[in-house]
Specification:
88 residues; mainly alpha
Length: 88
């Protein structure tokens, strides 16, 4: 069996998303923390790359797109809250 770069991107993406969720459940990460959000965003991008360049699947792609957008929203919202907390 041959593994292409997009296969590896997909496996690493799945690993990142699952690891983020595990660390959240283990109370090692916070759901609104930047590390958690970045792991989810990068994981979604990895899976999306594997779908775009490998075997395309619309339902899986839509789910990863939603995962990516929610993660980006979390990053932006977290940055706004940190900025607001610094204001006098």
């Amino acid at each position: 069996m041959t593994f292409y770069w997009h296969d590896w991107a997909g496996y690493i993406g799945v690993l990142l998303v699952l690891l983020a969720f595990f660390l959240l459940q283990a109370h090692k990460l916070h759901g609104n923390g930047l590390t958690y959000q970045l792991m989810n965003v990068l994981g979604a991008v990895g899976v999306m790359l594997s779908l775009l360049f490998g075997s395309f699947n619309w339902p899986a792609f839509v789910m990863q797109l939603a995962w990516l957008l929610i993660g980006i929203y979390g990053i932006v919202r977290g940055a706004q809250r940190r900025r607001e907390a610094r204001l006098p």
